[in-house]
């Protein structure tokens, strides 16, 4: 009961601090919303692409119709190239495609012809537009070559042969391709999209940043004599340390749980297997607690902890995949990121959310987090015991 009383006392202190509550709860939710909308959800309803068809032929019309059929693209017709360029500059559309006059006739003759791709470097959809258009251009080029060959052999018109080639293409789909992002050692690793990535990423990031910032409270308690007064009561040093640890854990766990619930109810995030997700959340909070206790034993003043701790948390988050997926960095940087517990937590959430994993499938990630806690927490307790009794 004494340990619980100390823990609840720490939780009560935080609940009365509006600034701490803002940075612990409100800010992570706002960041999740902004990043989820601005970056990862860019193609959720289709990237807006402006199109100008100066050729007005069957092939150009087929290209633009097929482009519009793609789920990742929404096309918007423009009268001329200049108006399309203005729209791209103003970010009214993410990019644009201009099919030049004479496109159809040159394709029929087998000549090389180039369509203009207009991209805005300030947008995040350049790769989506370029990849979709390049794949479509290659497909049309193949159909045109087949139609030209068939026309020469059969004596039919190019238009008739092109129509036949299109129908044969649809009838001959005997295989499909599954696209996956590739992680380490050739492992296929699908990443969550939109809020399904930013919600768990900001949960992990916020817990560790807040834990490091909250370590200032631990130092402040020693400085103003709160810890000394507790030791003057019939409380052992171990009881005080356990109470302080419980307090840090309750703060981290409730913060993580609130962000988790908001992710589910507000952003519609499916965290996958409930047992695995809550177990991972608990270990994230416990690892954050261990880090907070260690930071509280290393810094001498609350000002040092408040200034340096969050900066360290942000740096660790950047290296650990909380701000961008580790799959896009080099193997060496992935290895560096996995020095920190945040990377293992993100690996676990990615498996739960994107790959349908259960608690047993993230056993490695859970065990590594337990290992971090088992090493860091006793070290922090040892240093704090010396600081309290000194």
Word description of this protein:
With 390 residues, the chain is mainly α. 67% of the residues lie in helices and 5% in strands. The protein has 15 helices and 4 strands. It has helices at 2-15, 18-40, 58-69, 81-89, 103-108, 126-154, 158-171, 195-223, 226-232, 237-265, 274-298, 302-319, 331-337, 341-354, 363-389, and strands at residues 47-53, 73-77, 95-99, 116-119. A 4-stranded mixed β-sheet has the order 2-1-3-4, with helices on both faces. Helix 3 links the parallel strand 1 (47-53) and strand 2 (73-77). The chain starts with a helix and ends with a helix.
Summarize the structure.
The chain is mainly alpha-helical and 390 residues long. It has 15 helices and four strands.
Specify the helix fraction band: 55-70%
Mean pLDDT: 77
Q: What is the count of β-strands?
A: 4
How far do the termini sit from each other? Answer: 26 Å
Estimated share of beta-strand residues: 5-15%
Number of helices: 15
Q: What are the segments in which pLDDT stays under 50 over at least 5 consecutive residues?
A: 39-44, 172-189
Strand order of the largest sheet: 2-1-3-4
Supply the helix-strand structural class.
mainly alpha
Biggest sheet record: 4 strands, mixed
What Rg do the Cα atoms give?
29 Å
Q: How do the SSEs run, as a string of H and E?
A: HHEHEHEHEHHHHHHHHHH
Q: What general outline do the C-alpha atoms trace?
A: elongated
């Amino acid at each position: 009961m004494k340990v619980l009383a100390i823990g609840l006392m720490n939780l009560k202190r935080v609940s009365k601090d509006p600034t701490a509550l803002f940075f612990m709860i409100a800010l992570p939710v706002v960041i999740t919303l902004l990043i989820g909308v601005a970056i990862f959800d860019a193609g959720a309803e289709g990237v807006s692409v402006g199109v100008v068809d100066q050729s007005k032929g069957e092939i150009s019309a087929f290209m633009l119709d097929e482009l519009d059929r793609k789920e990742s693209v929404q096309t918007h017709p423009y009268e001329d190239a200049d108006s399309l360029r203005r729209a791209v500059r103003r970010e009214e559309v993410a990019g644009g495609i201009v099919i030049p006059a004479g496109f159809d006739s040159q394709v029929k003759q087998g000549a090389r012809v180039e369509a203009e791709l207009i991209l805005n470097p300030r947008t995040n959809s350049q790769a989506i537009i370029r990849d979709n258009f390049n794949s479509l251009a290659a497909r049309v080029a193949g159909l045109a070559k087949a139609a030209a060959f068939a026309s020469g052999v059969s004596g039919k018109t190019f238009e008739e042969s092109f129509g036949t080639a299109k129908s044969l293409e649809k009838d001959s789909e005997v295989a499909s391709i599954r696209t996956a992002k590739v992680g380490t050692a050739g492992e296929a690793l699908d990443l969550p999209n939109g809020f399904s990535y930013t919600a768990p990423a900001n949960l992990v990031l916020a817990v560790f940043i807040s834990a490091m910032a909250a370590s200032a409270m631990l130092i402040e308690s020693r400085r103003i004599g709160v810890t000394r007064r507790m030791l003057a009561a019939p409380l052992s040093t171990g009881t005080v340390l356990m109470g302080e640890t419980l307090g840090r854990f309750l703060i981290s766990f409730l913060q993580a749980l609130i962000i988790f619930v908001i992710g589910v109810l507000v952003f519609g995030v499916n965290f996958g297997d409930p047992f695995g997700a809550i177990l991972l959340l608990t270990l994230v909070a416990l690892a954050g607690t261990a880090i907070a206790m260690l930071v509280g034993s290393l810094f001498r003043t609350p000002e040092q902890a408040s200034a340096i701790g969050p900066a360290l948390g942000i740096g660790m988050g950047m290296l650990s995949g909380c701000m961008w997926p580790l799959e896009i960095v080099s193997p060496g940087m992935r290895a560096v990121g996995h020095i920190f517990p945040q990377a293992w937590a993100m690996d676990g959430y990615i498996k739960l959310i994107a790959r349908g994993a259960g608690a047993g499938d993230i056993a490695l990630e859970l065990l590594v987090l337990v290992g971090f806690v088992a090493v860091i927490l006793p070290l922090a307790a040892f240093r704090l015991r010396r600081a309290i009794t000194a």
